[in-house]
Fold:
Amino acid sequence: MYDVVTLGETMLRLTPPGLERLDQVRSLDVHCGGSESNTSVALSRLGSRVCWLSRLPDSPLADLVCGEMARFGVDTRYVVRAPEERIGIYYYEPARAPRSSRVFYDRVDSAAARMRPEDLPTAPFEAGMSQLFHTTGITTAIGERACATARLAAERARAAGMRISFDVNHRRNLWSPTDARSQYDEWLPLADLVFVAERDVALLWPELDSAVDLHALCRQATLIVTRGAEGSIAVTAEGSEIHQPAYQATEVERLGRGDAFSAGFIHRWLDSGDVAEALQWGAAVAALKFAMPGDMALVTPNEVRAVFSSDGSSQVQR
Amino acid sequence: MYDVVTLGETMLRLTPPGLERLDQVRSLDVHCGGSESNTSVALSRLGSRVCWLSRLPDSPLADLVCGEMARFGVDTRYVVRAPEERIGIYYYEPARAPRSSRVFYDRVDSAAARMRPEDLPTAPFEAGMSQLFHTTGITTAIGERACATARLAAERARAAGMRISFDVNHRRNLWSPTDARSQYDEWLPLADLVFVAERDVALLWPELDSAVDLHALCRQATLIVTRGAEGSIAVTAEGSEIHQPAYQATEVERLGRGDAFSAGFIHRWLDSGDVAEALQWGAAVAALKFAMPGDMALVTPNEVRAVFSSDGSSQVQR
Amino acid sequence: MYDVVTLGETMLRLTPPGLERLDQVRSLDVHCGGSESNTSVALSRLGSRVCWLSRLPDSPLADLVCGEMARFGVDTRYVVRAPEERIGIYYYEPARAPRSSRVFYDRVDSAAARMRPEDLPTAPFEAGMSQLFHTTGITTAIGERACATARLAAERARAAGMRISFDVNHRRNLWSPTDARSQYDEWLPLADLVFVAERDVALLWPELDSAVDLHALCRQATLIVTRGAEGSIAVTAEGSEIHQPAYQATEVERLGRGDAFSAGFIHRWLDSGDVAEALQWGAAVAALKFAMPGDMALVTPNEVRAVFSSDGSSQVQR
Amino acid sequence: MYDVVTLGETMLRLTPPGLERLDQVRSLDVHCGGSESNTSVALSRLGSRVCWLSRLPDSPLADLVCGEMARFGVDTRYVVRAPEERIGIYYYEPARAPRSSRVFYDRVDSAAARMRPEDLPTAPFEAGMSQLFHTTGITTAIGERACATARLAAERARAAGMRISFDVNHRRNLWSPTDARSQYDEWLPLADLVFVAERDVALLWPELDSAVDLHALCRQATLIVTRGAEGSIAVTAEGSEIHQPAYQATEVERLGRGDAFSAGFIHRWLDSGDVAEALQWGAAVAALKFAMPGDMALVTPNEVRAVFSSDGSSQVQR
Amino acid sequence: MYDVVTLGETMLRLTPPGLERLDQVRSLDVHCGGSESNTSVALSRLGSRVCWLSRLPDSPLADLVCGEMARFGVDTRYVVRAPEERIGIYYYEPARAPRSSRVFYDRVDSAAARMRPEDLPTAPFEAGMSQLFHTTGITTAIGERACATARLAAERARAAGMRISFDVNHRRNLWSPTDARSQYDEWLPLADLVFVAERDVALLWPELDSAVDLHALCRQATLIVTRGAEGSIAVTAEGSEIHQPAYQATEVERLGRGDAFSAGFIHRWLDSGDVAEALQWGAAVAALKFAMPGDMALVTPNEVRAVFSSDGSSQVQR
Amino acid sequence: MYDVVTLGETMLRLTPPGLERLDQVRSLDVHCGGSESNTSVALSRLGSRVCWLSRLPDSPLADLVCGEMARFGVDTRYVVRAPEERIGIYYYEPARAPRSSRVFYDRVDSAAARMRPEDLPTAPFEAGMSQLFHTTGITTAIGERACATARLAAERARAAGMRISFDVNHRRNLWSPTDARSQYDEWLPLADLVFVAERDVALLWPELDSAVDLHALCRQATLIVTRGAEGSIAVTAEGSEIHQPAYQATEVERLGRGDAFSAGFIHRWLDSGDVAEALQWGAAVAALKFAMPGDMALVTPNEVRAVFSSDGSSQVQR
Structure:
């Protein structure tokens, strides 16, 4: 029994310590990162039962990824392990303003990009077994096989009566806006939850006056538009708009905020069905992530609730 | 000859590096921390001669604590070492807003909690040997034996003509407000200096209109009320009030600010007898501590004086 | 379905880096260690399905322990979490000859020592669910409640048709030889596998001419006597003796060798039923552990097999 | 062919990790730092071809300095290596407000201070070989021999038709204002570019109403007055004033900002000859340095240009 | 003017600290490694002037590789930088016996494998510019384009009157013995120096009675057969055999010993032309490398000479 | 009341981590080292009361040295602090055979070398205050003023009825054998204990047939000749020879063994007066030091006694 089944690529993330530049490092900190697995871990720490689907090589680095997921409670038993393939890597060079943090990908031809429809397990998609399926636009971008696998998963989820959650999460370095949009246009009508960043709507659907107008492409869904420091807006299937301001947070690391938002939203939405509450949880988990190293929001429900009543200052809790 | 004799528990403090969460650590940074020993080290670095009294097990971890105290000049020769007992530990998980930093204690039945009146040495309490005795409400809370030992020490100090300093330093996880208050009510009339946080007065003496009204319980003393960012107030034995704003400081670590305040105040008060100056020193040492890792304020008088003339910006001194 | 169910205490282990002494450390490396959990992790990495039973506080340090077990595939779902209790700790100061490595325990009154019979789950002891139950003499020594829990578990295991494995693993700092022996005397007739170090037999049963004579107390069992560098001997239920030399290994860390031995033996014995093979696997896993940091043998079956054909030199495998 | 030839001392810099105090360190981070070499490395990373001249002992620490310079592309082939001499060291204790960061020098009698005119190579000063010679007031202060060497280098540069750049960079711990001023008074009329901090003008030429009035002493030159957060001003040889605000930056490390400014200015000035552009580049490189650990600005032209269009917030660039 | 021109791939090497396993790491130590660049750096530190040719992406990781080479004095100005390509990576998991150290490659489709003949610079191959060209069988194995580039380089070297050095350095994971042998058979007649491991001869030319018989395939060359702890044998072009025992060394890291051997041999051979001396230098540099972390032998001629007179024990030199 | 008063220089020791070479380091481990202070700390940890005399600058690095001494119980109250002077430094590059470990000194003109007779305190040399004065040949070599100070201290010690201990500890990089010998020749007749390495006797007194013949120059003393792995020999004032084999130890770090030997000898000799026992203690403390990082033997009497009964293997003591 799973609350959430996710599907996507997880990469090894290598980061210089102490704001050093990549071209002078002597050691690299190791994290695991991937949009769907970030969401999975955050969901698991919040208390959801999560199963993550993917394809990885048969190497100790893939063991590392699965081990990290497992330590935080995510079920990795259905991850396919492919000998002779490679794991995607990305190098993250954090910086402080006015210098930009940089991400360098080395993910071409990764095992995840080669994920095949026949890699999908049947058990998580049996009727009554799971509540929601979640994936992102990244999975549809990394390779045709991965994209087809995600589509089949969505179909099976639908057939099993599961809800479907899709986070557009556009990566402009992976494909052209035209290709991306044609793919997203197929996903939007399938989903019950659609997450999208305001700036991605502006880039991909320039004809829209406002990001919330994207709801026209996914009327059946609750559309959640994230707007960084300006907060977020949900448009429900019924068409009502709910606004949520962003919670203030000290910057520790920028990555993974969107994935944390999805996790907070989905966790609460599955629990209570209340979109306003879910939006508030999404905002709080995203703020907590921002103040935390690594790609994953490692937070408990109590910590989320503490954000609601916080005055924004840092405290010591004894 | 000591300027100050302190008595209390020092624990091993274990802290995750780099804002990691405790449940994912691979190593822990080691500090020593305890309210009275924090004050002792800060006093010693300011130039006071300090003797710290306590009880510790006969283990290398206790050697570590005594060694750290000794390296900063505190005399530990009278610390009692009890075979088969244990040292208190606390885990400190620092965080950035909106997440709270957390402290997890593992101090039950520590050697310090079992400190006995007969553990007290006589030399530091001989007439003319020492100037001031300092302890805190924590010592009165950790165990009946420790509490009785502190009381005997205060009596001996009084008999030897020493001044007595008592920092309420209420720990709500150690006992109930009722128990605590009944104990504090016995200490307040004994002390020449009483330090208390405004929020502790509000919690423990809710009937008071204002924290400075606590002076009614310790008319013989100078009462120092600390109010975080809002500064501090002293009420002298003569009843006059002196206000001191807080100095701005960059947050590096929240712990130990109150202990640093006491050290700054006591050091200057013993030197000059001037309450306004002492309050200013307390505020400056607390600000310096806030911008420093660890529980202890490692600062020199010159650095304290530099705070008085600082414009609040960070400088390089060559 | 589990191959092996284990029960026992896991502690936080804190170790100075780089052969420093405990009284001078500035950071401590964090491992998790406990005889039964060490065996559990090694079994899991060899491919056995393992469920570990224990009692831990409701703290992030206990989350750390469970997380480490989970990352290596051990099922921790039945571990009881008790608010307000404490986790056992031990400090390990490694050394090189002629200095001895030292272990300092701080485990009195740990949550595990307070484990109660009612903490036992039923599922792992249902008929057909699990193959073997494993515990050690340490669990019988740390507290009466823990001992009673282990006894009940053994009874349930017997009732469910499971095999029982008992590793004497005598800790002389936990109890007297007399108390220990009277407890062990009750366990030996219950077990199908009994592991014991030769030096423990000499200490506890001084009347025996040879460690293998202990088989008189557990005639129903296969008795495995470990003798350090001199290898090991098994006495089968039928009374035949099998000798196995120790494999040479470079010392990296001394702890956990016995637990690794048990894991290797049990894994192979459950697989093939062949005592000679099992003894060989035990010896190989123990040798691999000796050349590895931490308490746990993190090795695969292929690495075990490579030991059998190794000439003892270190190789690079590309 | 070099764009820039620099001459000056580079020291080993030793820094406590994690804001620790120098009197409690167990390890020290190692950097190399010296005003001219900082400028050299920044210039090299911006794309200039740079040759650095100096004198170092014949030791592995000097190899370390040369190696660091070489890894960033600076030509060190003409650095003189003197057996039996010593390398200058400085200890940098970073701090957060209200504590001051501190620099402790141990540079007396360093090999660089003993640099002799005959140590100068001829090749970089051949006609047409190099475009600009750069040194600072520090080199004129550390020793008479070093000062004489710098003077000879300037003369040779002049003879070869090179431009001369002089950064006053006054160090009050190295000499008296009177001695310093008399030396600077000789350099100012020699230079095509003069960099000076506003506060140094106030200290050394107190009779001037404004720092820009220093241009009276170097009418042939472009004078660049740096004013910290208040930006910078250039006075061209023609006497026109150009003002440049400072770019906002998050403080990571204070050292090396002035050297970064010079590098940005010189690089652009040699490229385009445009003083306003050069000033903007100087300001941007200085801002980037401020947000970076170590003494050296490791930045590319693209990163400089990104500062011009930045809104001051930190970004992730994928 | 170069003494040696080398051509080959350099990869990023990522290594767990402290003998940890790859699947549990939290950070990875970063080194650069590649057979030809290892030899290049060792040659440079011994005093040879070396130019290394290769192809790398246009990324900070490639800057890191070039920077490391440059810091040790190797000229990297002709390395081609290809946007959008990737750098090869290998993970090195060191172990102690009886566990094997392991190397995991992720080098498919690296920029170096795609090196093209037109990437070759002309300057190093101009007549009189360089003395010797060195490459290895790895370069011929990683890709057809790389192999063709190496062949062209050898031809140009021959045309420029340079000596040619070829180290067979067979990697069985890159190609089949048959493919490898057919390629090596073309290289052997081209080379003036051929380095080969005895075990590779046994694998690839099983028809030979002895490794030295390989000299039949390269009669024009000096053949150097390395035999690990059993030393090495050179067969000169004149057919005489010279035997050199291996020097004893404490194992610190196994990688790069062969490359260090080549460097020692080539450096001395170019200097003195004496094969026996060159063999002795090769053996000494290899022994020094074995006792050193990383892939590269960072040693000076004085340290090589000290090996000749050493009694094998470790000493302190003040 | 002191058991031992020592006098000499303590330097900052900077060491690359992990067997790296000095010219590639990014951080350096910090220790304090000096022959007399090494002996002082070891004596203190064994239980002797020790006062260390020296001269240091007024800097945080000198605070570090004094703090380290104090943490291990050595009294540093009489150390003179001289503003504007410098602390000696040495870089220690450890290596494994066949590479030699190397020490690079930067100690010229250190504050200790400038120690003056008037820096000597009177209290430790008052009659009945202290038992033994210890210094080494290094102190006599680093500077004339230091040498004169040591001589005056010896005279005062003699006047106060104290014993005098002199360790030749010849440093050939500090002076010529001739100069050294003429100085040592003055010290030998003054001392009650003379420690000398066999190789130093061979170098300095080549006319002697055997190192023990040096006793002719110090007939009043017990002469202790150390011979590395071959053990040590004492010649008593009565002329009897006592031989002590060396205890086996695993090499962790070579430095400080001789100083540890002196400490073990002196501690036991003051306790029991028995030369054979003292020799055994010296050998054991030296062996323990060899297996320990840093310059100082941090060992307890129990650990020394454990060496006597050890079989040479490494053990775990629980």
The two ends of chain F are 36 Å apart (CA to CA). Chain F has a mean pLDDT of 97.
